[in-house]
Amino acid sequence: MLRALAGQAQGWASNLSNRGRRLSRSISDSVLRHEVMWINACQLWNATNANQNATLRTGTGPTSISQAATRITRRWFDNYVKRYDLPDPDGLPLQFNQLSAKFEAVKDTKHRHFGYWVTLSTLERGKRIRVPVEPHAYFAAAGGIVAKTLTLRTKDGALYLDIVRDVPTERWHRPGVPLLALDLGLRNFLASSEGDIRGENFIDTLGRYDRQLQATTKGLQNAGIVRLTDCARYRRLAVRIRRYIKNNVQRWVRSLLQAHSPEEVILEKLNFVAENSGLGRRMNRLLRGFGQAVFKQCIKSWSELKEFKVTEVEAAYTSQMCSSCGFVHRANRKGNSFGCLSCGYLAHADVNAAKNQRGRSAAGAPTSTGSRHERWVSALREWLVRLRTGLLEASPGSTLHSRLVWRACTGIAVLMNEKRSAGKCGAARKVLQEFTLTLDRVSDACLYEKITWLVTTEAGSPALAVSTD
Question: What are the Cas12f1-like TNB domain coordinates in residue numbering (predicted)?
């Protein structure tokens, strides 16, 4: 019970820290913002100014904490405590082991009216409580052995008995793909590197729920209800949204995994909520918290059951990169369609992103490679190296050689045209000039001349427009 209470307190403090970061970002004064951020990092929300400065002297941070920063955090902390309940030890679950509880199937008892029975010991000798348990189709079909520890908890005034089965792990019954990459999104929930799409137009359904959620919230706020969870209608709507997300996430994940029986699953670092999703703040928070937790738990459960490996890769530029040639440009993707401006490769945008994830995992790419600009520079270098490798392998004057040179000219022209129009061509020019130094003047003469001419050509010239087309 102490561990459970400590977990409640840690969760409550974590939520408070997250809201404290939002509070600090809303302060325009940089000095005051730094002080509030430090107070939040040290979790000294309700401490006096003297205690905050005493803690400051033992660590690194601002030179001193002002009275204004202390007043802001203490007032904000008081309002938070009034609005959100403190951890409640009365709601802790009770755990029973095999000495104080017994789980039996109906065939092992003399009572025949229910599928299972649980016998719980009490403090009085000989007076036990028999609790009937209705059978559940999923629980009965799961197999395995029932664990010897039972948990009794309360929720919304009702009693729940949590019973766990220890299910033995087993491999897939048939051989499948060695690597299966899954791309997570809102427009289409899941796309695989094998070309599958699950949860098409997922955001449309979320949008309908979001409109209902916003209308309900607005009505309750106009009625003067501050705590929305006090309204039964709001709670029912939130439960319906969670049930929709959970049921469909589990169904879609199960469908893809059973269809391909992977030995390893590749995921990008999850970011379930897009900035331009058009969904409200409450729906975004629900997706970011509940939706990601359901997806992660589902993948984890399947990996433990089927013993496949789960790997996360860096997600930067996977939706803008061509899985065929490696060219990166934001104009490659338009909605669900992907068309490479360099090589002309066409595919579903989410499937193309999943293939890029699979390629990064197969190449052993690190999960983090620095800032976003550094990742873009790395992607541009990789594209140029792939082009040069293909040119060296192709016969000079052949159709393949001419096509590769055309791809290089088209891609570089599009890239330089975009960077010049945005006034950010310095980094691209530097990478291209460094690449030309690695070229051989004899074997790579054509590519060297084209890159040098395209880098030095001014934007908007007729020759550049022809190359772009």
Answer: 295-356
Amino acid at 254: R
CA–CA distance, 11 with 313 (Å, rounded to integer): 28
State whether the Cα torsion 321-327-333-338 is positive or negative: negative
Q: What are 34-90's pLDDT values in tens digits?
A: 899 999 988 889 999 988 888 877 666 788 899 999 999 999 999 888 887 777 777
pLDDT digits (tens, 9 = 90+) for 254-274: 999 999 999 999 998 766 655
| H-type alpha helices, 363-398 | 372-393
Residue 69 sits in the same domain as residue 113 = no
Backbone phi and psi for residue 397, each to the nearest 5 degrees, phi listed first: 85, -5
Tokens found for residue 428 = 């691209």
Q: Which long-range contacts (CB under 8 A, 24 or more apart) does 166-172 make?
A: 167/142, 167/143, 167/305, 168/143, 168/144, 169/304, 169/305, 169/306, 169/307, 170/305, 170/306, 170/307, 171/306, 171/307, 172/261, 172/306
Distance CA 78, CA 67 (A): 16
The token pair at 199 is: 């949860």
Let me know if residue 229 belongs to a domain.
no
In a domain, 222, yes or no: no
- Structure pTM? 0.69
**Six-digit token string for 324:** 């065929």
Helices (H) and strands (E) in the chain, counts: 15, 16
Q: What angle do CA 330, 331, 335 make, to 5 degrees?
A: 95
Is residue 260 assigned to a domain?
yes
pLDDT band of residue 413 (cuts 50, 70, 90) is: confident
3-state percent helix, strand, coil for the chain, nearest multiple of 5: 50, 15, 35
- The residue from 346, 368, 390 where one domain ends is 368
Domain range enclosing 56: 2-89
Structure tokens at 194: 């094998």
Per residue in 196-238, pLDDT tens?
A: 999 888 888 888 998 998 898 888 888 887 778 778 888 898 8
Residue holding tokens 């197999």? 143
Q: CA 252: distance to chain centroid?
A: 16
Q: How far apart are alpha carbons 421 and 469 in whole angstroms? A: 17
Q: Which tokens hold the place of 281?
A: 């703040």
Q: At what angle are helices 2-25 and 67-83 packed, to 10 degrees?
A: 130
**Site of tokens 């706020």:** 221
Contact assessment for residue 46 and residue 59, using Cβ atoms and an 8 Å cutoff = no
Write the DSSP assignment of 252-288 as a string of letters: HHHHHHHHH--SEEEEEPP----TTS---HHHHHHII
* Count of structural domains within the chain: 4
Residue at 422 is within a domain: yes
What is the full DSSP assignment across 312-341?
Answer: EE--TTTTTB-TTT--B-GGGEETTEEE-T
CA distances (Å), origin 445, targets 43, 111, 136: 63, 89, 72
